[in-house]
Design brief:
The protein contains seven helices and no strands. It is mainly alpha-helical and 126 residues long. The chain starts with a helix and ends with a helix. One of its GO terms (molecular function) is peroxiredoxin activity.
Length: 126
């Protein structure tokens, strides 16, 4: 693997947690391995590895974009990642309020519903 892949795996584990990454790695097959390698190198090894903006800010941007795009499974995953990135529930709520104005109330409403359920699963009081 490349240096970017190694850095990406390090960052991916720091953000999403070892349990999540271990499950994803165990589920990887020859069919999706090239895709997993690509996202580890690009999303995690390039974008998330950059220190231009904080992991907290990246987390909030990512959540807003995922909600705006209706990528609900990823919203829950990145809500769980806030435990590692430092984004607070209040900041996540504000990001979703931006989604309401700029991408639509239904998307923000559903993202807030997912956030509430995910925080409850995490034992985070909101």
């Amino acid at each position: 693997m490349s240096e970017r892949y190694d850095k990406g795996m390090e960052v991916r584990r720091a953000v999403l947690g070892n349990d999540h990454v271990d499950r994803a790695e165990l589920a990887k097959t020859p069919f999706d391995a090239p895709f997993q390698e690509m996202i580890t190198e690009t999303a995690w090894g390039t974008l998330w590895a950059s220190d231009t903006i904080s992991k907290r800010d990246r987390s909030l941007i990512t959540l807003a974009l995922l909600a705006a795009g209706g990528h609900w499974d990823e919203v829950a995953m990145h809500i769980r990642a806030t435990a590692n990135t430092g984004a607070t529930p209040a900041e996540v709520r504000e990001a979703f309020m931006h989604v309401a104005i700029y991408a639509g109330v239904p998307a923000a409403n559903h993202a807030l519903k997912i956030a509430k359920a995910t925080y409850a699963e995490m034992g985070v009081e909101i």
